[in-house]
What does this fold into?
Amino acid sequence: MTATTWTWRVAGGDVQAFERLLRRFNRSLFRVARAIVKDDAEAEDALQEAMLSAYRSMSTFRGDSRMSTWLVRIVANEALGRLRLRARRGAVLPLHADAPDLAEFELPADAASVSAPPSTRQDPERAAMQIEMRHLLESRIDALPDAFRVVFVLRALEELNVEETAACLGIPPATVRTRFFRAKSLLREALSREIDRAYEDAFEFGGERCDRITARVLARIASEASPPG
It folds into this structure.
């Protein structure tokens, strides 16, 4: 379905068409909101309100940009508005010294989505390992400075190009390139530290295994020291 078809069907009150639109873009849009507010529940709320806004204003979409880009901007505006409200209420925003003021994120009123890879059956151990790695990666992305984190999510996770990212955030393409490079460097450093710490625990030997082998060795020594019957 083309963007024009989406527009006139949704603007005409076709809720089923809008549901298809939601299911197509929800994953990508949630990532955008989550990258800004750094909280799952608030990201869900932001996405919900943004998509309600998109539904009500669908008739204003003129096709000057891709539908996905238009939706990303609506979601980002909603999420950033929540950050400003949080700031006015006295919450401390974790802005890095290298990150700009929130005002720099002011967006126009108007992201390519990446389809989720098909699920594959995996053995439980491999699935658990992937979940653990995903949690580690998510925690390190969360720790990035705000300005870098949003750019990283749009460029790396959603695979927007430089120009699309710049348009979504209302910043120059050169700034997108700089922040993306810096975000990747910070992420690489953080993951490297995790790997260095993991070296110490690789092929862990203590605990039950140590007790078991020690007991076996002592038992053998005792049996060899016993005089023949």
